Amino acid sequence: MNTTPDPQRPADKGADGHADRFRELAALDPADPRRAALRGDLVADHMDLARNLARKFDRRGDQLEDLIQVATIGLIKAVDRFEADRGNFYAFAIPTIMGELRRHFRDTGWAVRVPRQLKELHVTVAAGRNELSQKLGRAPKPSELAEHLGLTKEQVYEALVASAAKQGTSLDARLAEPAGDRFGYEDDRLAEVDNRRALGPLLAELPEREQKIIVLRFFRGMSQADIARRVGVSQMQVSRLLAKTLERLRAALGEDTLAG
Amino acid sequence: MSELETSPVTRTHGVRDVEVRVWADAEQVPLLRSFAADIAMRMDFDLDSIEDLRMAVDEACSLLVRAAAPDSALLCWFEPEELGIRVRVRVDAEHGVAPSSDPMGWQILTALAATVTESVDAIDGGYRISVELLAVPGPAEVDPR
């Protein structure tokens, strides 16, 4: 199976470079095993796109991995439906993937049947969390939420636990992730094993604050504004520190594969 | 939904020590993660710190599960303290590989918890590997500027 795409090919050329392969895909018989292989390759080659779009929808409480899965389904649909003669694959794939993600948010109710009262409580607590976060400049404690909303602590606990059930996390989730490949999901640019290996020790050498910012940005997928709030510096500073740190890591890796 | 009064003497932050024993298997990790989050919630950690702890426990358990001997147990203790919550995780393994030898996993762990320590002890027929972390509520006091 030809699963090694040319790693040197710049991403923006990908769309045109793939056009021939899309034509080939369309020409192959559905029963032909080569079709399945090519389809898989095309999907794999565009996973960056799915991840990037998924990240845009990565709100608090939504598992990025889940969103990437939804985006990947959109990507597969895009690969299946794209007609190479109709132009740029990205122009077709991006709306398709976005549509899939939006539908996910519209259709996904609660994974677990939760009493309506509890759903309402969840909405109340989620709103209270936002209000208090702004007011306090940090995440609120359950006790603060209870007081703010005039609820008992136990009610807040119930709502918080219920929120966790809103999207079910399979007990198999970990099984689905091969042990050695656990970090690629969070940041596609760190996906290469060599870089990941080399990066660990480099990260360890960074000052504590820079380490924290890097982890929050790339492993938690937090926005710069959120990081600024967490770390207690301005967003400008976060931006500067990120740029500086990435510059440093990039230089140390001797590569040009990290981007802010 | 009953609200029973418990003698404050017997409880720190309203939570007692918790000990959990599961198969050292990746599918059990979410369970431990949820335990940690629930305890932190009841200790009135702020919501960000609860998430930090959830992720730290996930990382610590994942590191150990990978090291654990087949069909062995993962033991986890959650101990509320004055400052925060101490979590100890332990497995028995065939090889004495330190959890910190996974630089990325260890990096995440040390960034999320206030303190992290590991130990690898030779025992009969193998090694006993532990990770202990202390999580404290609120990033404010850790990071004054």
TrEMBL record, chain A:
InterPro entries registered for this protein in UniProt: RNA_pol_sigma-70_dom (IPR014284), RNA_pol_sigma-B/F/G (IPR014322), RNA_pol_sigma70 (IPR000943), RNA_pol_sigma70_r2 (IPR007627), RNA_pol_sigma70_r3 (IPR007624), RNA_pol_sigma70_r4 (IPR007630), RNA_pol_sigma_r2 (IPR013325), RNA_pol_sigma_r3/r4-like (IPR013324)
Keyword Transcription regulation annotated: yes
Coiled coil regions in record: none
RNA polymerase sigma-70 region domain ranges (all copies): 42-110, 125-176, 202-251
Alphabetical UniProt keywords: DNA-binding, Sigma factor, Transcription, Transcription regulation
PANTHER family linked: RNA POLYMERASE SIGMA-E FACTOR (PTHR30385:SF4), SIGMA FACTOR F FLAGELLAR (PTHR30385)
Listed name of the protein: RNA polymerase sigma-B factor
UniProtKB/TrEMBL annotation, chain B:
Positions of transmembrane segments: none
GO molecular function: kinase activity
Limits of the Histidine kinase/HSP90-like ATPase domain: 22-90
Assigned keywords, A-Z: Kinase, Transferase
Protein biosynthesis is among the record's keywords: no
ATP-binding keyword on record: no
Name this protein carries in UniProt: Serine/threonine-protein kinase RsbW
Stored InterPro entries: HATPase_C_sf (IPR036890), HATPase_dom (IPR003594)
